[in-house]
Amino acid sequence: MSTDPEQAQTPSRTIPKWLIWAISKDDNYQPTVLGHVALSSALISIAVIAWIIMFVISSVWENEWIFKPEKITVEQLESATVKLSPTVYERNRIISQIQEIERLADTHAKIMGFFYKQYYISLATMGACAALAIVSLFFISKVGWERVNNALINIFIVTSGIVIFYGNMSLIFQQKDNLEASQKIYVNYLGLRNEVLSYLATGETISNESLAPAKFIHYVDRELKSISFIRLGFDPKSIPDFSKQFYDKPATSK
Q1: Cβ-based neighbours of 82, under 8 Å, separated by 6 or more
Q2: Which of 11, 99, 142, 199 would suit a FRET pair with 209, their CA atoms being 20 to 30 Å apart?
Q3: 2 inside domain
Q4: Whether the predicted pLDDT of 6 surpasses 50
C-alpha cells in the first residue's frame, strides 16, 4: 500500500507555516525578534503565574503558622480589674493599654506574614530559575555560543535576570532580617499581653512582685517603649549602580 508523502508529513501541519515563519528562521529554527519576544513573554508569564500560586499557598500556611489569640472585650477587661480595686482613670488606662498591645500585635503579625510570603517566594523562584539557567548554560557550553540555538540563550538570559531581580529585592528590602525582627516584635507583644492578663488575675508581675495599678501602668509603658526600639530596616545601598560601569574608565598602563 502506497502512502501519500503529504499525509506522512501531517504532524508538521499542527503548527501553521506563517507562525513558524514569524517566530523562527533558517533550518536550525533560530528564533526571530518576534520569536524572542514571544519566548521571553512566555517565561515571564510562567514566573508571574508561579508567583500567584506560591502567594496563595504561603497565605494558607500563614494562617496556620501565625498564632493570633482572640481579642478581649471591654466587658471582660472591666470585670478583670475589679479585684485590683483601681480608680476609674487607672482602669481605663489599663484597658487602653491592652487594646493598644493587641492592635500593635495584630499589625506586626501582618507585617511578619508579608515578609514571610515574600521571602518564601523569592527563595523558591530563585531556586527554580537558577536551575533552568544552569541547565541552559550546560547545553550552551556543549554546543558553543556561536552554534547553539538562540532560544537557549534567551532562556538563560531571562532566567538569570529573574534570579538577579529577586536576589536584589531580597537584599534591598532585607526580607530575612525584617522577618526575624517582626517575629521578635510580635512575640514580645504577645508576652506583654499575657503579662498584663496575669497581673489582672493575680495582682503580681511575672517576678511575683505585687504592684499597685499605677506602678504597673508605668511598667507597661516602659515595656511598650522598649519594644518600639526594634526597627525594620531597608538597604538602598544594595541597589546596583550600573552607571559606574559606563563612567569609570580603566586605568591605562604606562
Answers
A1: none
A2: 99
A3: no
A4: no
31 strand-pairing partners: 24
Is 246 a member of any domain?
A: no
Q: What is the mean pLDDT of the chain?
A: 84
Q: Is residue 42 part of a domain?
A: yes
Residue 27 lies in a domain: yes
Per-residue pLDDT tens over the stretch 116-152: 999 999 999 999 999 999 999 999 999 899 888 888 9
User: For residue 250, what is its C-alpha cell?
Assistant: 580603566
Task: Tell me the C-alpha to C-alpha distance, in Å, between residue 220 and each of 109, 211, 215.
Answer: 20, 12, 9
Residue 26 has pLDDT above 80, yes or no: no
Range of the domain at 18: 14-236
Cell numbers at 148, concatenated: 547553539
Residue 52 in this model has a pLDDT that exceeds 80: yes
DSSP 225: H
- 113-141 b/e with 16+ CB inside 10 Å = b? bebbbbbbbbbbbbebbbebbeebbeebe
Average pLDDT rounded to a whole number, residues 54-83:
88
Sign of CA dihedral 47, 53, 59, 62: negative
- Cell numbers at 199, concatenated: 497581673
State how many domains the chain has. Answer: 1
- CA atoms of 173 and 115, how far apart (whole Å): 9
Q: What Å distances lie between residue 247 and 104, 250, 254, CA to CA?
A: 47, 10, 21
Nearest to 170 by CA among 224, 232, 123, 225: 123
Res. 10: pLDDT tops 70: no
Task: Return the C-alpha torsion angle 93, 98, 99, 100, nearest 10.
Answer: 90
